[in-house]
Structure formats: structure tokens, C-alpha cells
Task: structure prediction
Amino acid sequence: MVVSTWDFGMAANQVAMDRLKDGASAMDAVEAGVRVSEADPRITSVGKGGFPDAEGDVTLDACIMDHQARCGAVAALENTLHPISVARAVMERTPHIFLVGQKAVDFARRLGFPKEDLLTHEARAAWKEWRKGNPRWRDFSTDISNHDTIGMLAIDARGNLSGACTTSGWAFKVPGRVGDSPIIGAGLFVDNEVGAATATGTGEEVIRISGAFLIVELMRNGYSPLQACQEAVRRVRKNNPNRKDLFVGFLALNKQGEFGAWATKSGFEYAVTSLTEHRLETSGY
Ligand code: ASP
Result:
């Protein structure tokens, strides 16, 4: 079973499921799956083609976690097409979990990840347009309408869970800003005894409730994936009683292959792929 956020999750799930059918681990499947979104320049919120920060630099955040609680993450990574694979390399090739900024780029280059310009013509045009109305960098965008991280959760033939999460973050963000997506326990969490969860939307609000970890713990205590996502949304709402426009969405998968999603408002879609089905679902809110 593979689930992932947003409609572009469909293409990513397909690749992940093909890998699972070939006998791959959930870890291999989620990495291969989200790489599809990272490489797609039409997706303006993940990888190549992602909208840049206020200074026009594309900075990427990603993390990955497996069934043994092994995990890796990168943040503020520039000029590198596949942050998820760099995150995996942090996990597998260092004693650490999280590398950031230029030193993370240096690490990637040492391992042979090539330098690549990620700012597409379209993303640059969007940034220039935004910049016209916001001549100083402090006038960062307060509207996270370009929210569309891919978070993917999978369970393999051995019954093991893994997850991956990758994003270009909040469009036109303050340079240096990092959201929830590369933070284990916020944008992604996996516990092989229980299940896995991921998040999309305004990352600051996901961090404030330790969103993905919260959902997995709720499932451990008997909540269904749907109920756990609903409770996480309730807590986001509690912290933001007056922000009707706030968007946060959660997606969860438990050890039995049951899944659920919930969001603060309408419009959240997620892709569900099993051996027999491949469909786009609409989350409640
Ligand atoms: N959660 C991501 C972030 O805050 C963006 C998103 O999914 O909308 O960076």
C-alpha cells in the first residue's frame, strides 16, 4: 500500500508501487516515488520548478524514515535535484540525522550528487511578479497558497513501513526559513509497531503540535488514522481560532494498511495505491 499527498502523488505512487511489486522495501519505494515529484518542473512546490525564497533562491527540505526508526534529513539545500536521496545518504552514510545549508550541499557534492539549476523560467517569472509588489526582502509572502509538499507513506510485502517528505517550502519565504517537512516528528513520522503520518500546509503550525508524531501516538492509543488526523487538525485549530484561511492537511497509514486524512479546509487531495486500486481521494475538513 502507498499513500501520498496531492494529485501529483498519483504519478509518484505508481512508481513506488511498481517498486513494491518488484519486491523492493518500503524505503526504496518511497524514495523512488517522491523522486518523481522532485524531478517534475511543473510542480511549483517540490524540487525542480519549486518557487524560490524572497531572494530568488530555491531551497529544498526533505526527510526520510524507515521501519527501524532510522532517519535522515536535509534543509535549505540548494542546486540539488533530489534532496530525498541526500537525506537518505545522511541516514545511511553518516552517524547523524540532519544536515543543513551549504554544508549539506558540500556533502551532496562529495557523494556525487551533481549541481543543478532548479529555478525554472516559470518560477523565476512568478518570483519577479511577486517581487514587484514586495521590493524589500522583509516583505515575505504571508500567503502560503503554494503549499503542496509531497509526503508519502508505504507498507511493503514484509509489512514494514517507511515514509518520505520533500518540499520547496513556503513560496517567497524569508531566506533561511525551514518548515515542518524535513523535521522528523513534524512533517513525517514512522513507527513500525503502529503506523506512519505526514503533513502538508503551513509548516509552522505543524511544528507547533509535533503533527506527525502526535498522529502516530494517537494511533498507538487506539485512534484510527482518520480520527488521529482529525484530532491533529483540532489542535491546529485550537492554536489558530481566528485564522479561517489557514491550510494544514494530514495523512496517516496504520500497520494494517488502513489510511485516513483530514485538513483544516477544503481542497486537500491524496493518492491511494494498493495492489488493486489507484485513485485520488478527497480529504474531509
Ligand atoms: N509544509 C511545507 C512547509 O511548510 C509546505 C507545504 O506543504 O505547504 O514548508
Remarks:
- The mean pLDDT is 95.
- Residues 225-239 form the longest helix (15 residues).
- Helices lie at 9-21, 26-39, 83-93, 101-110, 121-133, 203-208, 211-220, 225-239.
